Request: fold
Amino acid sequence: MNPFHGPPEWEQPAGRHTPLTDPVLTVRQISRFGFVPRRLTRIDHALVFATPSGRYTTALPPIRPTRAEIISRRYTAVYEVDMGVHPVRAELSLPSRNDALQFVSVVELSWQVGDPAVFVASRHRDVPRLLLGELEQAARTVARRFPITDSTEAEAEVLRTVRSRGPLGAQAGLLVTWTLRLHRDQDNIEHEQRMQRIGHEAVQRVHEERQAMAHDFEKLRRELARGEQQQALLLQEQKWRTELQDAELAKVDFYQRQLEQGGVRAWALHLAEHPEDSRLVMQSLRQDQLSMIRAKAEMVTQLLNSDNVEGYELEGPKNLALRALHDILNHQLPADETGRGAPAPRLPLSSEWPEEPEPPLPDVRVPEARHQPRTSPPTHEQDVYLPKDMP
Reply:
C-alpha cells in the first residue's frame, strides 16, 4: 500500500535488476497531512527529505522518520533514491596525434550512490554520461600527445592523469570504481595484423629455406662420406687384388723353378701339397730313378764300347760307377748332381719346405775296356776326373 496520498511528481518504473541512469526513483511533494507513516517503501532505498530552507535530510535504510518528525521539521518533498551498485560498459573514441586516426578506449565502471542528499542536490539525471564525460574530458588532452602506434604508453598516461584528478563522481555523491583499456582503431589493428602475418610468412619462408639448405647439406655430406667410403673400399680391393696377383706370380715363379729342376724336388713339392698321393709319388719316383739309371748305364756302355775313349779318361766314370754301386747296396737312391747339398727353395706365403734328400747313385756295371789305351795319359792330368769328395 502506498504510504502517500495522491500521485507522485515523478516516478520511473524500475525493478531490482533494471539498468538505471538516474537513481532517483520517485519525487513527491509533502503537505501537512499528506504523509501516512506506513513502512511500505523498499528497505534498500534511501529517502531524502527537502526542507523549506533548501536543505536536504537523508534517511538511510532501514531508518524511516515518523509523522511527527515530518510535521515538526516541515519537510516539503521526499526523494526515493536507489542505493544499489550498477555496472556500465562503454566505448570512447580518443584522438591521437594524427586527427585522422583515433584511439578506441573501453571503459568498465560500476557506480553507486554514496551520499543521497548530495546527489539529489546535484540535480544530475544521467549518471553514466556524467562519469564518462569526466573521464573523456581528462583523457582527450593526454591521448592527443601520442601517435596511434603508442597505445600502451598512451593508456598508462591516461590512467595516471585521470586518477590524479580524484575519484570520479565524488562531487555528485557517487562511489565509482573504473578501469580503462586503450587500443588502436580497427583499421590499424587489421593493418598491424596483416603486417604481422606478412612478417610471420617471411620468417616461415626463411626458416623453411634454411631447413631445406641444411637438409641438402646433410644429404651432400652423407653422399660425400659414402663416396669416400666406396673409394676407400675400391682402393683396398685393388690393393688386395694386387697382393693376390703378386702372390700368384710368386707361386708361378716358385713352381716354375721347382718343375724346371724336375726329379725328386718336383715330386717332393707335389707330396707336400697332396700328402694322400704318397704311394703314387713313390712309384713315380722309383720309375724316374730306374729310367735315369738305365739311361746312365746305356750311356756308360756306349762310352766304354767306343774306340775313341782313352784309358785315363775312364778313371772318373769308373769311380762314379763304384760309388753308385755302393749307394745302391746301402739301399739309397742315387743323388741328383744338380741339387747336391743345396736347400730346397721356399714357397711364398707358406711354411718352410723340408730339404730334399740326396738320391743314391744308380747301379751301373762298368764293362772292361776291350783294349788298352794306345798312349799313356800325361802325369799332370791324372786327377782331372776325380770327384770332389774323393781323398
In short: Residues 10-82 form one domain. DSSP finds eight helices and eight strands in the chain. The longest helix spans residues 186-261. Residues 139 and 158 are 5 Å apart (CA to CA).
